[in-house]
Fold this sequence. Notes:
This protein is an alpha+beta fold. Helix 2 (70-88) packs antiparallel against helix 7 (191-203) and helix 7 (191-203) packs across helix 8 (301-326). It contains 8 helices and 22 strands. Adenosine monophosphate is lined by residues 132-134, 136, 140, 145, 186, 188-189, 261, 265-266, 277-279, 281, 305, 308-309, 313.
Amino acid sequence: xxxxxxxxxxxxxxxxxxxxxxxxxxxxxxxxxxxxxxxxxxxxxxxxxxxxxxxxxxxxxxxxxxxxxxxxxxxxxxxxxxxxxxxxxxxxxxxxxxxxxxxxxxxxxxxxxxxxxxxxxxxxxxxxxxxxxxxxxxxxxxxxxxxxxxxxxxxxxxxxxxxxxxxxxxxxxxxxxxxxxxxxxxxxxxxxxxxxxxxxxxxxxxxxxxxxxxxxxxxxxxxxxxxxxxxxxxxxxxxxxxxxxxxxxxxxxxxxxxxxxxxxxxxxxxxxxxxxxxxxxxxxxxxxxxxxxxxxxxxxxxxxxxxxxxxxxxxxxxxxxxxxxxxxxxxxxxxxxxxxxxxxxxxxxxxxxxxxxxxxxxx
Length: 363
Ligand code: AMP
Ligand code: MG
């Protein structure tokens, strides 16, 4: 028997200034408004605001912008999203990534943006000692995560696919990607972070004062809902408890991205065992992690996305040591009985009442 699970990670709750408790009441109310208003594609939630929900990048994307030219910004960004999808997708045959994955040549020319993102991916592989590795694609395919035809491969198949997995097998020089034969890549663990940061940069070119970009639970925000609103307390997002879909924590996100990884987001069950989509490049199998979900909070959405995947693979202890040493991002990390929260954001995180039984550890 094979069952499939798909979940996001962050639930957007629009908060306004004021104390945290009050904010939470308002959040729930606004979540309700948000869900009912999105029945139509585009709506004007308030004066000078626009919101749109689209399906792209294999997920539901919600864009909300406040300011005089909010609609213009949204129209522009919508086109941008499709451009990036056509550049980075492994399933669009003409994408840069498909070109790399199908080419028999050792050098492939790609757009500057693709080259830049691959180059950044390689430096994050170095940073995470290879836990984050975009050459994981042969294994993602082998386990059926690209086609939804899930299967548990045997050890010979895993060994064969693993022999093509090593970020050191690719390099980038200007817009040329050099690769060893049979190297195939998948930007699935980093592209949404990159795209959300590009969207925010694009929106900022317009006469707008704030925005919330939600790429299937990967959220990035900036600004305020009204021009010059100095009392604005920041946007709040709910962090999803794995499987249940409830919010277990509320995060005041500020002008940052919050990106979550977890085994619950995409998996299948076979013979009573759950197999998920985050593959450990050292074993070729779904990572055996004691983390249920990890949300990375950073101004750098690209790093947040890639790190969420890598930290999940590391597990609680290694991820904690890594964060202490690198000091490169803040996290909310959940294990069976404990929620680990970085000192840098501990004042911005509040556990929901039903989850107060969780131990809270500041790291
Ligand atoms: P995320 O949801 O950001 O954690 O990304 C998970 C997706 O990234 C998977 O669905 C795969 O497409 C891909 N992936 C899986 N394992 C890895 C890994 N170790 N490094 C980089 N990408 C991965
Ligand atoms: Mg990721």
